[in-house]
Amino acid sequence: MSDPYFQQLFADRIGGSNYGKGTEIYKFEKIKRAKRKALAEHPERTLVDFGIGENDEMAAANVRSVMAAEIDKPENRGYADNGIAAFKEAVARFMQREFQVELDPIREINHCIGTKTALAMLPAAFINPGNVTLMTVPGYPVAGTHTKYYGGEVHRLPLCVQNNFLPDLDAIPADIRKRAKLLVINYPNSPTGKVATREFYTRVIDFAMNNEVVVIQDAAHVMLSYADRPLSFLEVPGARDVGVEIHSLSKGWNMIGWRMGWVCGHERIVGALADVKDNSDSGQFIAVQKAAAAALDDPSIPRNAREKYGRRLRKLIATLRTCGFDCQMPGGTYFLYTASPKGLKGGIRFATAEAASQFLIAEHSICTVPWDDAGNFLRFSVTYEAADEAAEDALMAETGRRLKSLNLEF
Ligand SMILES: Cc1ncc(COP(=O)(O)O)c(C=O)c1O
Predict the structure, then answer these.
(1) Which residues have a Cβ under 8 Å from the Cβ of 110 and sit 6 or more positions away?
(2) I need a surface site. Which of 111, 126, 292, 386 has the fewest CB within 10 A?
(3) CA neighbours within 13 Å on the CB side: how many for 77?
(4) Measuring from each residue's beta carbon to the nearest atom of ligand 1, which residues come in under 6 Å?
(5) Is 218 in a helix, a strand, or coil?
(6) What does the alpha-carbon distance between residue 280 and residue 352 come to, in Å, rounded to a whole number?
Protein backbone atom coordinates (compact mmCIF):
# COMPACT_ATOMS: atom_id res chain seq x y z
CA MET A 1 0.00 0.00 0.00
CA SER A 2 1.42 3.40 -0.92
CA ASP A 3 1.61 6.02 1.81
CA PRO A 4 -1.34 8.39 2.17
CA TYR A 5 -0.53 12.13 1.89
CA PHE A 6 -0.80 12.41 5.69
CA GLN A 7 1.78 9.70 6.49
CA GLN A 8 4.25 12.36 7.70
CA LEU A 9 1.62 13.86 9.97
CA PHE A 10 1.29 11.06 12.52
CA ALA A 11 2.58 12.15 15.92
CA ASP A 12 5.87 10.72 17.16
CA ARG A 13 4.11 9.23 20.17
CA ILE A 14 2.48 6.58 17.98
CA GLY A 15 5.43 6.08 15.62
CA GLY A 16 5.51 9.27 13.54
CA SER A 17 5.93 8.74 9.79
CA ASN A 18 6.54 5.01 10.43
CA TYR A 19 3.10 4.56 11.93
CA GLY A 20 1.30 1.49 10.56
CA LYS A 21 4.46 0.00 9.05
CA GLY A 22 5.74 -2.02 12.01
CA THR A 23 6.13 -5.76 11.65
CA GLU A 24 6.44 -6.54 15.34
CA ILE A 25 3.69 -8.88 16.53
CA TYR A 26 2.45 -8.32 20.04
CA LYS A 27 2.08 -11.08 22.60
CA PHE A 28 -1.70 -11.34 22.54
CA GLU A 29 -1.78 -11.36 18.73
CA LYS A 30 0.82 -14.17 18.70
CA ILE A 31 -1.37 -16.16 21.06
CA LYS A 32 -4.46 -15.57 18.89
CA ARG A 33 -2.59 -16.73 15.78
CA ALA A 34 -1.22 -19.83 17.54
CA LYS A 35 -4.74 -20.66 18.76
CA ARG A 36 -6.17 -20.38 15.25
CA LYS A 37 -3.38 -22.60 13.90
CA ALA A 38 -3.86 -25.24 16.61
CA LEU A 39 -7.60 -25.36 15.92
CA ALA A 40 -7.03 -25.66 12.16
CA GLU A 41 -4.29 -28.32 12.42
CA HIS A 42 -5.84 -30.35 15.24
CA PRO A 43 -9.62 -30.13 14.96
CA GLU A 44 -9.85 -33.41 16.90
CA ARG A 45 -8.20 -31.86 19.99
CA THR A 46 -10.29 -29.50 22.15
CA LEU A 47 -8.51 -26.26 22.88
CA VAL A 48 -8.08 -25.89 26.64
CA ASP A 49 -8.16 -22.13 27.00
CA PHE A 50 -6.51 -20.63 30.08
CA GLY A 51 -5.62 -17.54 28.07
CA ILE A 52 -8.86 -15.58 28.32
CA GLY A 53 -8.72 -12.63 30.70
CA GLU A 54 -12.47 -11.96 30.77
CA ASN A 55 -15.26 -13.25 33.00
CA ASP A 56 -17.14 -16.15 31.43
CA GLU A 57 -20.55 -15.19 32.89
CA MET A 58 -23.16 -12.56 32.12
CA ALA A 59 -24.09 -9.92 34.67
CA ALA A 60 -26.56 -11.12 37.34
CA ALA A 61 -30.23 -11.42 36.33
CA ASN A 62 -31.37 -8.73 38.79
CA VAL A 63 -28.84 -6.28 37.33
CA ARG A 64 -29.98 -7.04 33.78
CA SER A 65 -33.61 -6.49 34.86
CA VAL A 66 -32.78 -3.03 36.19
CA MET A 67 -31.04 -2.27 32.90
CA ALA A 68 -34.03 -3.53 30.91
CA ALA A 69 -36.41 -1.30 32.87
CA GLU A 70 -34.17 1.78 32.84
CA ILE A 71 -33.48 1.62 29.13
CA ASP A 72 -37.13 2.53 28.44
CA LYS A 73 -37.22 5.61 30.67
CA PRO A 74 -36.99 8.94 28.87
CA GLU A 75 -35.19 10.61 31.76
CA ASN A 76 -32.16 8.36 31.17
CA ARG A 77 -31.64 9.41 27.57
CA GLY A 78 -29.24 12.33 27.83
CA TYR A 79 -25.58 13.10 28.49
CA ALA A 80 -24.56 11.79 31.89
CA ASP A 81 -21.55 14.13 32.18
CA ASN A 82 -19.64 13.30 35.34
CA GLY A 83 -22.23 10.85 36.60
CA ILE A 84 -25.48 10.61 38.47
CA ALA A 85 -25.87 10.99 42.23
CA ALA A 86 -27.58 7.57 42.57
CA PHE A 87 -24.43 5.76 41.38
CA LYS A 88 -22.07 7.80 43.57
CA GLU A 89 -24.32 7.18 46.58
CA ALA A 90 -24.32 3.43 45.86
CA VAL A 91 -20.50 3.55 45.72
CA ALA A 92 -20.42 5.33 49.08
CA ARG A 93 -22.69 2.64 50.60
CA PHE A 94 -20.52 -0.10 49.09
CA MET A 95 -17.23 1.39 50.34
CA GLN A 96 -18.75 1.75 53.81
CA ARG A 97 -20.22 -1.78 53.84
CA GLU A 98 -17.14 -3.61 52.50
CA PHE A 99 -14.26 -1.53 53.85
CA GLN A 100 -15.70 0.81 56.49
CA VAL A 101 -14.43 3.69 54.36
CA GLU A 102 -16.59 6.78 54.51
CA LEU A 103 -16.63 8.90 51.37
CA ASP A 104 -18.49 12.03 50.36
CA PRO A 105 -20.32 10.95 47.20
CA ILE A 106 -20.23 14.47 45.76
CA ARG A 107 -16.58 15.37 46.24
CA GLU A 108 -14.71 12.11 46.73
CA ILE A 109 -16.23 9.77 44.11
CA ASN A 110 -16.49 9.99 40.31
CA HIS A 111 -17.60 7.31 37.89
CA CYS A 112 -15.52 6.31 34.86
CA ILE A 113 -16.32 4.32 31.73
CA GLY A 114 -14.27 1.38 33.01
CA THR A 115 -11.07 1.81 35.01
CA LYS A 116 -9.02 1.68 31.83
CA THR A 117 -10.23 5.17 30.96
CA ALA A 118 -9.37 6.55 34.41
CA LEU A 119 -5.85 5.13 34.13
CA ALA A 120 -5.60 6.78 30.72
CA MET A 121 -6.80 10.16 31.99
CA LEU A 122 -5.00 10.59 35.31
CA PRO A 123 -1.57 11.22 33.72
CA ALA A 124 -3.13 14.23 31.95
CA ALA A 125 -3.74 15.75 35.37
CA PHE A 126 -0.15 15.37 36.59
CA ILE A 127 2.43 14.64 33.93
CA ASN A 128 4.50 17.39 32.33
CA PRO A 129 7.41 16.53 29.99
CA GLY A 130 10.25 14.97 31.98
CA ASN A 131 8.07 13.78 34.87
CA VAL A 132 8.15 10.15 35.89
CA THR A 133 5.43 7.59 36.57
CA LEU A 134 6.53 4.69 38.76
CA MET A 135 4.84 1.50 37.63
CA THR A 136 5.01 -2.11 38.64
CA VAL A 137 5.89 -4.68 35.95
CA PRO A 138 4.51 -7.03 34.84
CA GLY A 139 1.25 -5.11 34.87
CA TYR A 140 -1.49 -3.20 33.16
CA PRO A 141 0.37 -0.65 31.02
CA VAL A 142 -2.24 2.03 30.25
CA ALA A 143 -1.13 4.75 32.70
CA GLY A 144 2.44 4.34 31.41
CA THR A 145 1.42 4.66 27.77
CA HIS A 146 -0.36 7.94 28.50
CA THR A 147 2.52 9.18 30.65
CA LYS A 148 4.75 8.82 27.59
CA TYR A 149 2.14 10.55 25.39
CA TYR A 150 2.57 13.60 27.64
CA GLY A 151 6.37 13.51 27.35
CA GLY A 152 6.88 11.75 30.66
CA GLU A 153 8.90 8.65 31.44
CA VAL A 154 8.04 5.33 33.03
CA HIS A 155 10.27 3.87 35.72
CA ARG A 156 9.63 0.15 36.06
CA LEU A 157 9.38 -1.49 39.46
CA PRO A 158 9.84 -5.25 38.92
CA LEU A 159 7.59 -7.65 40.81
CA CYS A 160 9.61 -10.79 41.37
CA VAL A 161 9.82 -13.77 43.71
CA GLN A 162 12.75 -12.20 45.59
CA ASN A 163 10.64 -9.22 46.70
CA ASN A 164 7.49 -11.28 47.23
CA PHE A 165 5.86 -9.54 44.24
CA LEU A 166 5.85 -6.17 46.01
CA PRO A 167 7.81 -3.24 44.54
CA ASP A 168 11.09 -2.36 46.26
CA LEU A 169 10.46 1.32 46.85
CA ASP A 170 13.83 1.78 48.61
CA ALA A 171 15.65 0.77 45.42
CA ILE A 172 14.28 3.71 43.40
CA PRO A 173 17.23 6.00 42.55
CA ALA A 174 17.22 9.52 44.01
CA ASP A 175 17.05 11.32 40.63
CA ILE A 176 13.99 9.24 39.66
CA ARG A 177 12.28 9.99 42.99
CA LYS A 178 12.86 13.69 42.39
CA ARG A 179 11.10 13.61 39.01
CA ALA A 180 8.42 11.10 40.02
CA LYS A 181 4.86 12.37 40.24
CA LEU A 182 2.76 9.20 40.08
CA LEU A 183 3.12 5.80 41.68
CA VAL A 184 0.74 3.30 40.08
CA ILE A 185 0.16 0.12 42.05
CA ASN A 186 -2.39 -2.64 41.54
CA TYR A 187 -3.57 -4.98 44.28
CA PRO A 188 -4.83 -7.66 44.08
CA ASN A 189 -2.19 -7.69 41.39
CA SER A 190 -2.68 -8.73 37.81
CA PRO A 191 -1.00 -10.94 36.71
CA THR A 192 0.86 -12.11 39.84
CA GLY A 193 -2.22 -12.61 42.06
CA LYS A 194 -0.41 -11.05 45.02
CA VAL A 195 -2.49 -9.08 47.53
CA ALA A 196 -1.24 -6.09 49.49
CA THR A 197 -0.98 -5.96 53.26
CA ARG A 198 -1.73 -3.00 55.50
CA GLU A 199 2.02 -2.77 56.26
CA PHE A 200 2.83 -2.51 52.57
CA TYR A 201 0.21 0.21 52.07
CA THR A 202 1.64 2.08 55.06
CA ARG A 203 5.07 1.97 53.40
CA VAL A 204 3.51 3.26 50.17
CA ILE A 205 1.91 6.17 52.04
CA ASP A 206 5.21 7.06 53.75
CA PHE A 207 7.01 6.88 50.42
CA ALA A 208 4.41 9.11 48.77
CA MET A 209 4.59 11.70 51.56
CA ASN A 210 8.39 11.71 51.71
CA ASN A 211 8.83 11.97 47.95
CA GLU A 212 5.74 14.02 47.11
CA VAL A 213 4.19 11.59 44.67
CA VAL A 214 0.53 10.79 44.07
CA VAL A 215 -0.57 7.18 44.50
CA ILE A 216 -3.02 5.52 42.11
CA GLN A 217 -4.07 2.16 43.51
CA ASP A 218 -5.83 0.05 40.87
CA ALA A 219 -8.32 -2.15 42.73
CA ALA A 220 -9.98 -3.60 39.60
CA HIS A 221 -9.79 -7.14 41.05
CA VAL A 222 -10.38 -6.31 44.72
CA MET A 223 -13.57 -8.33 45.21
CA LEU A 224 -11.73 -11.45 44.03
CA SER A 225 -9.64 -11.76 47.21
CA TYR A 226 -9.37 -15.26 48.65
CA ALA A 227 -7.33 -15.54 51.82
CA ASP A 228 -8.95 -12.74 53.74
CA ARG A 229 -11.67 -10.19 53.22
CA PRO A 230 -10.86 -7.66 50.47
CA LEU A 231 -8.67 -4.75 51.60
CA SER A 232 -9.02 -1.20 50.30
CA PHE A 233 -6.01 1.14 50.21
CA LEU A 234 -8.33 3.82 51.61
CA GLU A 235 -8.77 1.84 54.84
CA VAL A 236 -5.19 2.58 55.77
CA PRO A 237 -4.63 5.83 57.70
CA GLY A 238 -3.12 8.52 55.47
CA ALA A 239 -4.10 6.90 52.15
CA ARG A 240 -6.65 9.56 51.35
CA ASP A 241 -4.00 12.25 51.79
CA VAL A 242 -1.77 10.78 49.08
CA GLY A 243 -3.99 9.39 46.37
CA VAL A 244 -6.98 7.62 44.94
CA GLU A 245 -8.21 4.10 44.46
CA ILE A 246 -9.80 2.97 41.21
CA HIS A 247 -12.54 0.34 41.22
CA SER A 248 -14.26 -1.63 38.48
CA LEU A 249 -17.56 -3.41 38.05
CA SER A 250 -15.91 -5.60 35.38
CA LYS A 251 -14.37 -8.48 37.31
CA GLY A 252 -16.19 -8.87 40.62
CA TRP A 253 -19.66 -8.31 39.14
CA ASN A 254 -19.25 -10.01 35.71
CA MET A 255 -19.86 -6.64 34.01
CA ILE A 256 -16.79 -6.40 31.75
CA GLY A 257 -18.62 -5.09 28.69
CA TRP A 258 -20.81 -2.66 30.61
CA ARG A 259 -17.87 -0.28 31.10
CA MET A 260 -18.39 0.99 34.60
CA GLY A 261 -15.99 1.88 37.38
CA TRP A 262 -15.12 4.71 39.73
CA VAL A 263 -12.28 6.74 41.20
CA CYS A 264 -12.39 7.62 44.89
CA GLY A 265 -10.11 9.22 47.42
CA HIS A 266 -8.56 12.68 47.71
CA GLU A 267 -11.14 15.18 46.52
CA ARG A 268 -8.64 17.33 44.60
CA ILE A 269 -7.44 14.32 42.58
CA VAL A 270 -11.00 13.09 42.01
CA GLY A 271 -11.85 16.63 40.86
CA ALA A 272 -8.90 16.72 38.46
CA LEU A 273 -9.97 13.38 36.96
CA ALA A 274 -13.50 14.76 36.60
CA ASP A 275 -12.14 17.82 34.76
CA VAL A 276 -10.10 15.75 32.30
CA LYS A 277 -12.99 13.32 31.89
CA ASP A 278 -15.44 16.13 31.21
CA ASN A 279 -13.22 17.05 28.26
CA SER A 280 -12.94 13.46 27.02
CA ASP A 281 -16.34 11.78 27.31
CA SER A 282 -19.87 12.66 28.35
CA GLY A 283 -20.38 9.95 30.92
CA GLN A 284 -21.72 6.40 30.86
CA PHE A 285 -25.34 5.83 29.78
CA ILE A 286 -27.51 6.58 32.83
CA ALA A 287 -29.32 3.22 32.57
CA VAL A 288 -25.93 1.48 32.95
CA GLN A 289 -25.13 3.64 35.98
CA LYS A 290 -28.44 2.70 37.61
CA ALA A 291 -27.91 -0.99 36.90
CA ALA A 292 -24.38 -0.71 38.32
CA ALA A 293 -25.80 0.95 41.46
CA ALA A 294 -28.16 -2.02 41.88
CA ALA A 295 -25.19 -4.38 41.45
CA LEU A 296 -23.23 -2.58 44.17
CA ASP A 297 -26.16 -2.90 46.56
CA ASP A 298 -26.21 -6.70 46.16
CA PRO A 299 -23.34 -8.28 48.16
CA SER A 300 -24.18 -11.75 46.84
CA ILE A 301 -22.84 -10.93 43.33
CA PRO A 302 -19.15 -10.47 44.18
CA ARG A 303 -19.44 -13.20 46.81
CA ASN A 304 -20.59 -15.68 44.15
CA ALA A 305 -17.84 -14.61 41.74
CA ARG A 306 -15.24 -15.00 44.50
CA GLU A 307 -16.52 -18.50 45.41
CA LYS A 308 -16.58 -19.68 41.82
CA TYR A 309 -13.13 -18.41 40.79
CA GLY A 310 -11.64 -19.48 44.13
CA ARG A 311 -12.97 -23.02 43.59
CA ARG A 312 -11.67 -23.12 40.03
CA LEU A 313 -8.23 -21.87 41.10
CA ARG A 314 -7.97 -24.55 43.80
CA LYS A 315 -8.83 -27.26 41.26
CA LEU A 316 -6.30 -25.88 38.77
CA ILE A 317 -3.54 -25.77 41.39
CA ALA A 318 -4.21 -29.36 42.47
CA THR A 319 -4.03 -30.43 38.82
CA LEU A 320 -0.88 -28.48 37.93
CA ARG A 321 0.95 -29.75 41.02
CA THR A 322 0.56 -33.31 39.77
CA CYS A 323 2.31 -32.18 36.57
CA GLY A 324 5.37 -30.68 38.26
CA PHE A 325 4.30 -27.05 38.68
CA ASP A 326 5.20 -25.55 42.06
CA CYS A 327 2.17 -23.31 42.50
CA GLN A 328 0.20 -21.84 45.38
CA MET A 329 -3.22 -20.30 45.70
CA PRO A 330 -3.02 -16.61 44.67
CA GLY A 331 -4.27 -13.99 47.14
CA GLY A 332 -6.60 -12.56 44.53
CA THR A 333 -7.65 -12.18 40.84
CA TYR A 334 -8.75 -15.04 38.62
CA PHE A 335 -5.20 -15.68 37.48
CA LEU A 336 -2.61 -18.21 38.53
CA TYR A 337 0.91 -16.89 37.87
CA THR A 338 3.43 -19.67 38.09
CA ALA A 339 7.05 -20.32 37.08
CA SER A 340 7.27 -21.40 33.46
CA PRO A 341 8.80 -24.82 32.67
CA LYS A 342 12.41 -24.72 31.44
CA GLY A 343 11.82 -27.58 29.02
CA LEU A 344 10.91 -31.25 28.75
CA LYS A 345 12.97 -33.84 30.65
CA GLY A 346 15.62 -35.01 28.19
CA GLY A 347 14.09 -32.91 25.42
CA ILE A 348 13.37 -29.45 24.07
CA ARG A 349 14.39 -26.35 26.16
CA PHE A 350 12.36 -23.16 26.55
CA ALA A 351 14.48 -20.00 26.75
CA THR A 352 11.45 -17.91 27.69
CA ALA A 353 7.92 -18.29 28.99
CA GLU A 354 6.77 -17.20 25.55
CA ALA A 355 8.55 -20.20 24.00
CA ALA A 356 6.92 -22.53 26.54
CA SER A 357 3.50 -20.97 25.96
CA GLN A 358 3.81 -21.26 22.16
CA PHE A 359 4.85 -24.92 22.54
CA LEU A 360 1.85 -25.69 24.78
CA ILE A 361 -0.60 -24.13 22.32
CA ALA A 362 0.92 -25.54 19.14
CA GLU A 363 1.67 -29.06 20.33
CA HIS A 364 -0.96 -29.66 22.99
CA SER A 365 -3.71 -27.07 22.40
CA ILE A 366 -3.30 -25.61 25.91
CA CYS A 367 -3.47 -21.84 25.87
CA THR A 368 -1.71 -19.75 28.55
CA VAL A 369 -0.32 -16.19 28.62
CA PRO A 370 3.47 -15.86 29.02
CA TRP A 371 5.18 -13.11 31.04
CA ASP A 372 8.92 -12.55 30.65
CA ASP A 373 9.18 -9.06 32.19
CA ALA A 374 10.47 -10.08 35.62
CA GLY A 375 11.36 -13.77 35.51
CA ASN A 376 9.65 -16.34 33.26
CA PHE A 377 6.06 -17.06 34.21
CA LEU A 378 2.89 -18.48 32.73
CA ARG A 379 -0.51 -17.04 33.56
CA PHE A 380 -3.43 -19.46 33.71
CA SER A 381 -6.84 -17.79 33.83
CA VAL A 382 -9.79 -19.72 35.27
CA THR A 383 -12.35 -17.80 33.22
CA TYR A 384 -12.76 -20.73 30.81
CA GLU A 385 -16.28 -21.74 29.83
CA ALA A 386 -17.64 -24.74 31.75
CA ALA A 387 -21.34 -25.31 32.30
CA ASP A 388 -21.07 -26.81 35.78
CA GLU A 389 -18.66 -28.32 38.28
CA ALA A 390 -18.62 -31.66 36.46
CA ALA A 391 -17.48 -29.83 33.30
CA GLU A 392 -14.77 -28.05 35.33
CA ASP A 393 -13.57 -31.42 36.66
CA ALA A 394 -13.52 -32.94 33.19
CA LEU A 395 -11.47 -29.99 31.92
CA MET A 396 -9.01 -30.38 34.78
CA ALA A 397 -8.70 -34.12 34.12
CA GLU A 398 -7.95 -33.43 30.44
CA THR A 399 -5.43 -30.71 31.34
CA GLY A 400 -3.70 -33.05 33.79
CA ARG A 401 -3.60 -35.87 31.26
CA ARG A 402 -2.00 -33.72 28.58
CA LEU A 403 0.52 -31.96 30.82
CA LYS A 404 1.60 -35.06 32.76
CA SER A 405 2.54 -36.88 29.57
CA LEU A 406 5.00 -34.10 28.72
CA ASN A 407 7.44 -34.61 31.62
CA LEU A 408 7.95 -30.91 32.12
CA GLU A 409 11.17 -29.76 33.78
CA PHE A 410 11.32 -26.64 36.01
C1 LIG B 1 -5.18 -4.57 36.60
C2 LIG B 1 -6.27 -4.08 35.73
N3 LIG B 1 -6.65 -2.81 35.80
C4 LIG B 1 -7.63 -2.32 35.03
C5 LIG B 1 -8.26 -3.11 34.11
C6 LIG B 1 -9.34 -2.50 33.25
O7 LIG B 1 -10.59 -2.85 33.71
P8 LIG B 1 -11.91 -2.15 33.25
O9 LIG B 1 -12.74 -3.19 32.59
O10 LIG B 1 -12.54 -1.59 34.48
O11 LIG B 1 -11.54 -1.04 32.29
C12 LIG B 1 -7.90 -4.45 33.98
C13 LIG B 1 -8.55 -5.29 32.97
O14 LIG B 1 -8.12 -6.34 32.60
C15 LIG B 1 -6.89 -4.95 34.82
O16 LIG B 1 -6.51 -6.23 34.76
Answers:
(1) 82, 83, 88, 262, 263, 264, 270, 273, 274, 277
(2) 386
(3) 4
(4) 53, 114-116, 140, 186, 190, 218, 220, 248, 250, 256, 261
(5) strand
(6) 40
**DSSP percent split of the chain into helix, strand, coil, nearest 5:** 45, 15, 40
CA-54 nearest atom, ligand 1:
14
- Residue 247's SS3 state is strand
- The rounded Å distance from CA 103 to ligand 1 centre is 23
Cα(200) to centroid(ligand 1), Å: 22
What would the mean pLDDT of 204-211 be, rounded to a whole number? 98
82/279 Cα distance (integer angstroms): 10
Distance 402 CA to ligand 1 centre (A): 31
User: What percentage of the chain has pLDDT greater than the value 70?
Assistant: 100
Distance 220 CA to ligand 1 centre (A): 6
Using the atom order of ligand 1, give the atom closest to the CA of residue 259: 9
Q: By alpha-carbon position, which residue is closest to atom 16 of ligand 1?
A: 190
Tell me if 100 sits within 8 A of 236, measured CB to CB.
Answer: no
Ligand 1 atom having least distance to the Cα of 119: 4
pLDDT tens for 341-394 read 999 999 999 999 999 999 999 999 999 999 999 999 999 999 999 999 999 999
Distance CA 246, CA 223 (A): 13
Predicted confidence (pLDDT) per residue in 172-195, tens digit: 999 999 999 999 999 999 999 999
Question: Could you tell me if 221 and 332 are in contact, meaning their C-beta atoms sit under 8 angstroms apart?
Answer: yes
| 255-to-59, 115, 249, 336, 350 alpha-carbon distances in Å | 5, 12, 6, 21, 37
Cα separation, 182 vs 381, whole angstroms: 29
Contact 326, 338 (CB under 8 A): yes
Q: How far is the CA of 116 from the centre of ligand 1 (A)?
A: 6
99, 194, 216, 260, 291 from 165: Cα distances, Å? 24, 6, 18, 28, 36
Helices (H) and strands (E) in the chain, counts: 13, 14
